[in-house]
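Loading example: each entry is read as four labelled lines plus one structure line.
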Amino acid sequence: MIDYFNSLHPMPPELCNAIAAVAELHDYPKKTILLKEGQISNHACFVVKGLARAFYNSGDKEVTRLFMDEGYIITSWLSFYTRQPAHETIEILEDATLACLHHDDIENLYAEFPEFNIVGKKATEYFFSLSEQRSLMLRKHTAEEKYLFFTERHPTLFQRISQKQIATFLGMNEETLSRTRAKMLKKS
Amino acid sequence: MIDYFNSLHPMPPELCNAIAAVAELHDYPKKTILLKEGQISNHACFVVKGLARAFYNSGDKEVTRLFMDEGYIITSWLSFYTRQPAHETIEILEDATLACLHHDDIENLYAEFPEFNIVGKKATEYFFSLSEQRSLMLRKHTAEEKYLFFTERHPTLFQRISQKQIATFLGMNEETLSRTRAKMLKKS
DNA sequence: ACCTGTTATTGACTTTTGTCAAGATTCCGG
DNA sequence: CCGGAATCTTGACAAAAGTCAATAACAGGT
């Protein structure tokens, strides 16, 4: 996690130590709910190992908004920043090792080390850009284009996630994804 | 614009004055291109009056990514922050009055007035949340749901924008939007 | 290893949306 | 105020995706 932050913006050793001092490394088994809809997101967790998803309920089914794998920071960004209840639930999909920072500790780090604000800003920008990329994908018209968009960006993720969840993420239903997949495999 | 910033986070009078000193108020006629794809976004412009859109080219047609009306801040956020070329073009749709701040002036304000960072962070969060809302809309399955999502959130915008542009924004084609609209009017 | 329940695939059919084209309407510049 | 161009609407048809249902494959727990 320290390496990742450093890659966003170089940090002095004292800042690195201060982060290490407040970060909590934990293991979470599959199916752990890290955050429930309606709660306020108090932690930002760097994914050392494992996989999670954020989803919301639409009618009777769960719609996955995004997947978070190694190198990703798990949090409900909006809730974390605005201190308002989250509109989504975050669930661990694969046994995970996470390095978590509490909101208050991060605020303290911002206050004590001004350069940490730049790290925070860069991280926000990056996750903002990922959000925009998802919109780009969703505006694609055909299932085939959406499928390609996903496989090109996350070639390894396909094997790790159930098709039902990928389908809701892509804005299509399970059967359509299955058929699109079969068609694509035939082509190659 | 000052009022809007104040509503995000209260600002001392000196900061207000400093903003007023560097802000440039300008009128832009319809069809002005504020930013071209490939350029770096150097300004953040508060919309006092008027309307603009950001679009990108997909194949042979222009896909509108978002509309920006009164109270909105026009900029290609990602380009503005990362100092990388923008992937989109921004065009004025209705004669507009804009209060513009240059990137360098904003950086100076951040440095001189720490509380301005909070204003900037809140603004980013807000536009991040709007981006997420657009994803929410795009994952709706039927044209009817997308149409309702748009009319509920932007009841006045429908009359001001060509249907072709609204259609690409919603991820459907012109004819589908026209038919959906006709069906909705009949119902009410 | 076996049972059970979830997940994935496939088929037949319906609904929705896209495509192409023609006609109507609106808008704008001269 | 007129004419041309863009925009919007409507229709007929094609293509794509959704729905329902049945079967197959897989995974987790005992």
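The CA atoms of residues 15 and 21 of chain B lie 10 Å apart.
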